[in-house]
Amino acid sequence: MADTDPLSGPATIDDVAREAGVSTATVSRALRNHPYVADATRDRVLAAVDRLNYVANPNASRLASGITRTIGLLAPVLTSWYTGELVAGVEEVCSEHGYDLLIGSADPEARERLFHTDARFHQRIDGAILVDVMCGEVGARQLAELDTPVVVLGEHLAAVASASIDNVKGGRMAAEHLLELGHRRIAVIKGGAHLEVERISGLPTVPDQRMQGFCDALAEAGITLRSADTRDGDFTIRGGRVATNALLSLAHPPTAVFCLSDEMAFGALQTIRERGLVAGRDVSVIGFDDHTVAESVGLTTIRQRVREIGRLGARTLLGVLAGGANPGHHPVDLTLVVRSTTGTPA
Amino acid sequence: MADTDPLSGPATIDDVAREAGVSTATVSRALRNHPYVADATRDRVLAAVDRLNYVANPNASRLASGITRTIGLLAPVLTSWYTGELVAGVEEVCSEHGYDLLIGSADPEARERLFHTDARFHQRIDGAILVDVMCGEVGARQLAELDTPVVVLGEHLAAVASASIDNVKGGRMAAEHLLELGHRRIAVIKGGAHLEVERISGLPTVPDQRMQGFCDALAEAGITLRSADTRDGDFTIRGGRVATNALLSLAHPPTAVFCLSDEMAFGALQTIRERGLVAGRDVSVIGFDDHTVAESVGLTTIRQRVREIGRLGARTLLGVLAGGANPGHHPVDLTLVVRSTTGTPA
DNA sequence: CTGAAAGCGCTTACAG
DNA sequence: CTGAAAGCGCTTACAG
């Protein structure tokens, strides 16, 4: 709809006040569902708003109220499937509640700056969602002391609100599946080898946690992971390919490979195919994520409901902003999805 | 860094003015690289800014100047690989130029509203990027008349700035590849069957354009596409699976399938594998996009540089905002990537 | 329940 | 080159 007078630009609160025969204060109250407004007055205001096609200028209301109705999301990579799903979940909840979402990528070096709230977010957000911040408990305590409410996604930190899966358990689930099939010689393709160095605290990283659960289960079966059977795949398809090539070139290759992400598993499957082998028969591969494409390549994997993590994180943050207390940690469950890339050892 | 006086909240322009011994007008000018500021004064201001760790409140400057330094992006789906790449490209350019990016999803029904600028974007953006708006020339003319500068991504419209591939050519490239391999009986899995109805003008949709190039090439080889060989795959993996199942169940199945997106091709490959067939030997499959996972499944495809489309679109829009004229259409090139899912007919 | 008025923190003609 | 001052369009105590 065009405004009543297209030449004068968008209608302002003054236009509405004049049209409804009330003060701007009343218009503002009526629109924000302030309790003390007479029903008749509210109706008159609403009618005027409708007639003039009025929408409040968000910059003006933000400046006046100090509330931005915007939340910021900071993630190391924006283009991965994982981040995409997370963003989708967060966005869903934000738009349901009329919140804007401001997205930024934060390379690890930016982490320090982050604790004092990124300049890009300065006075623009009411709260922040941090993805894979990998800050450890020390950093988390700094985050908790920030004036901006924060929730962390992807890892479980005691000092700050968070939503994540249980990564130790995920690693264990993968190992147990392979063990049950009868595998005794199992390799792992992990990622984020460079992360250890950057950690602020001594807490295990997400890949380390998965490794731990995995090794625990192996140990219970009396198996020790050989160091030559642990490779870094950089959490990329290409990395998975290279690592798998190395593993399958061993004089005595493993019968199964656990990839810490589905994308690395895709690379593994590619290598296996290119070598004329069949996954699930000659070599077993299990991934982690349940990426959109996993089903179509028949990949057995540990499914994490990433979008749900995003939703939960956003709801948690909005809850805090609405005046709730720090709500602690929200766990999201994991499922083993068995498809065709795992089978009994050759 | 903490502010000098943490109790008083973030520093304002008044604090800086006082600290530097100048007026707020001068601070503002110095910070925005206004020409008429003495070098010595500018230095003094910058030093004060640094000392107080000042960052301008964006809401205040937006309100005062009417410039938001924000661009809006509207896409039908936010979670697809395609949109993800596009957003990444746009975001890259935006952050380079200090622009915020506001993202919204626009279901087809919202298209009408869109022409009068979405309420979510009201007074929040300087310009908009519209993805797959499918509005045709009539709608495009409406867009061009908007007070908000707009660039359209994914289709070529005469009336409004745009960046896209040549979809007709893409369809032709796919057909020619299959024809050269010797295929004569080729099926197509298209998507967006419901789109036709919703179109405002009579212009062919993106899938129609690809179909046209494809059929043109077939016609030149003396081949007519049978109607039973055209299926809708909804641009999803599952849709590709279902459609391929139907095609391979025909008494006389095609020897090759052109999928209008890689995701549908992934579904096709799944079906082929599940039927115990081998893609590239028993049936050829060619996709469209060069999705991140395409290489690892050996998919032959028509590569479009989606991220580059996003970058180009953003640069174009920023150019218009900087005072450039409507810059017309920006074509992005296409490449045939031959991998293992296509081969000579069985 | 409602209004007059101050204030949010900037930008930008207008003078000088 | 610089400053005083108005104004951007809201919100919110403060009175009534």
Keywords, separated by commas or semicolons:
elongated, alpha/beta, 346 residues, 6-stranded parallel beta sheet, Rossmann fold, 434 Repressor (Amino-terminal Domain), DNA-binding, 13 helices, homodimer, 6-stranded mixed beta sheet, 3 domains
Set down the secondary structure blueprint.
The structure is a homodimer of 346-residue chains.
Chain A: H1 13-20, H2 24-31, H3 39-52, H4 58-65, E1 70-75, H5 81-96, E2 100-105, H6 111-114, E3 127-131, H7 136-145, E4 150-153, E5 161-164, H8 167-181, E6 186-190, H9 195-198, H10 206-220, E7 230-232, H11 237-248, E8 256-259, H12 262-274, E9 284-289, E10 300-304, H13 306-321, E11 329-331, E12 334-337
Parallel strand pairs in A: 1-2, 1-3, 3-4, 4-5, 5-11, 6-7, 6-8, 8-9, 9-10
Antiparallel strand pairs in A: 10-12
Helix pairs in contact in A: 1-2, 1-3, 2-3, 5-13, 8-10, 11-12
Chain A binds a DNA duplex (16 and 16 nucleotides) through residues 12-14, 22-26, 28-29, 32, 36-38, 41, 56-66, 123.
